[in-house]
Amino acid sequence: MALTIWHLGFCNWKYTPTYRGFDTFTGYYNGEEDYYTHVRGDGYDFRFNTDVYHPPQGEYSPNVFAQRAIAILDDVDPNNESLFLYLPFQSVHGPLEVPKKYEQIYSNIHDKNRRIYCGMVSALDEAVGNITAVLRERGFMDNLLLVFTSDNGGPTYLGANNLPLRGAKTTLWEGGTKGTSFVYSDTLLKKTKYLNTEIIHAVDWFPTLLRVAGAPQDADIDGMDMWPTISENNTSPRTEFIYNIDEIKKNAAIRVGDYKLIEGSPGAYNGWYPLPTLEGDHRAESSYDSAKYPDQIVYVSDEPNYRLFNIKDDPTEHFDIADKYPDVVEKMKQRLAEYKKSLVPANYPPPDPKSDPKYYNGTWSPGWC
């Protein structure tokens, strides 16, 4: 079962959720849209399976998705049926929108962007809480694994803050790439209530969840089974990973052990952004306001072609040690070059006018490729 954002392609029906293995889908195809009207640009974008669907007018999207998730749970017998529920909420992605009652919780935060963002987090928390309450009431918790995770750092230009990490979403800095997660189960975890700091990559979720479900694993995939690492706090089998290799931006980053090598420019948001302050303190309160107070941000102006950091000793990436350890830089450059040999060429075509919603009754729709 898939709910909310898809964002994995929709120019052809074969790329959409119900053609990719999901029994049902409720959500939208694009990367973002209005939380109330479900409009992106000139088109409406909301589906129930393959049909255009109009939720109750004015309903905030996290509530729509929580209600749909609960409806799905009502139709499943936890004692006799298995269930995979994929629920990547729209929150807290832009645009910044939230019912006023949630924003007012943070009335002591001066900056409006940050105030709305915090309200969106509270609304999301409430929606997740409503779903987990039903999971417990219906008896799902006896044999359930709940994974709550993120796919990137926060956009500091939209009220988020990644302090003490450096940078923001769209950059190669830890603030743009390091995700946080928690895993919960009443029965499946051998060790609980601990902080896991092992190296785990987003691609590792797939084989890990297959392991938990007792399904066969395909050896020819990028991910690694992290269940012993998560369940027992064992050492991670992963010692390296690629952050990204971008042929268009001409940048890349790789992690090997404790070391991280950045090739080219890490991105536009280079600083350590100040924490938001409360009403009455008129310093910079979010990255959005920080442009007014440049003394509140630490900037880095030099652009070396390679940067090296020890992420274990320097998780905030303050100290570039490339000049100190040229041998490490060279070894990591060679490892990065090996990964580049298997790189799939980027396919970043220009906008296709055939996708214009005007050809599909004002909706974003498959059928143009």
Automatic annotation (TrEMBL):
Domain of life: Eukaryota
SUPFAM superfamilies: Alkaline phosphatase-like (SSF53649)
Alphabetical keyword list: Calcium, Glycoprotein, Metal-binding
InterPro entries registered for this protein in UniProt: Alkaline_phosphatase_core_sf, ARSB, Sulfatase_N
MF terms in GO: metal ion binding; sulfuric ester hydrolase activity
Entry's family note: Belongs to the sulfatase family.
Full protein name: Sulfatase N-terminal domain-containing protein
Organism encoding this protein: Potamilus streckersoni
